[in-house]
């Protein structure tokens, strides 16, 4: 409500989604209202007098098929699951079957290539250094976990704030933007786990939670999800796949770490015992799929997965 307040020449006394009653006649530009629409669009709100002499504001969302309408139709879903359970593989499958679904990959390469410029003084050209924060975090978790979580969360936030592609905005079906992990798994899986392992200390954990809550609350609808697909497999299966994939930074990952991450996922998404700080997230529908199945070369299993996902998306 902060942006509109700058323009508003009226007092609002009753407000629902797409419907606001005001006391005086006016016509304003409403920028980025959380309560009326999702995203940072500017919408023209038209004021009309109602029978009782009061005024009623309608956002463009309920008047016509505007850009805000199109954006609001796009469902947002994250794929969650343990390391190497097969999220990217599953995401590629989803991307290949339906033009209405757009997958956004986890920004791992960003974490592996952080560029910094150092200047050694006048006349000396600045030098660019590239560091691999993923590797640093695995090699010295006590030192780097907090830094890693700040960067991973920031990059996930950036990803979740990107507008959907035009193809989804023009879709006549059920457009869905699918994210590989989210700002929520950043906190309720990884950061929490690092805290419980003692790799993030109590001060760092308090600071992380404080800015995480602030960001999620400030961005409101823009970072909300409508559903979660949870790919689950025994940690031993994830270990097998992790080793087969052979990502250099993960060489030292132990089964015990995957066990702990598995328990975090179960507590958050199945048992619902993780303390969650965002009301909408507490109610979010979760589709749990058995990812231990070797679906890659089995079209029948792929078909079953896709049907379940399609039904899930249609119900959101
Ligand atoms: N259903 C499956 N059956 C057999 N192998 C699979 C399956 N899913 C994934 N794999 C293999 O397991 C490895 C890890 O898969 P993938 O990279 O998709 O995992 P991920 O969950 O995205 O990993 P990360 O948590 O690191 O992002 C890859 O080598 C992939 O080919
Ligand atoms: N510590 C930590 N915090 C995160 O938020 C996080 N997100 C992903 N990862 C690790 C898992 C894979 O190795 C690799 C790719 O998913 O990155 C994380 N590690």
From TrEMBL:
SUPFAM superfamilies: P-loop containing nucleoside triphosphate hydrolases. Residues 77-312 form the Deoxynucleoside kinase domain. Pfam families: dNK. InterPro entries: Deoxyribonucleoside_kinase, DNK_dom, P-loop_NTPase. Its EC number is 2.7.1.113. GO terms for molecular function: ATP binding; deoxyguanosine kinase activity. Keywords: ATP-binding, Kinase, Nucleotide-binding, Transferase. One of its GO terms (cellular component) is mitochondrion. CDD domains: dNK. It is an enzyme of class 2 (transferase). The keyword Transferase applies. Belongs to the DCK/DGK family. This is deoxyguanosine kinase. The gene is DGUOK.
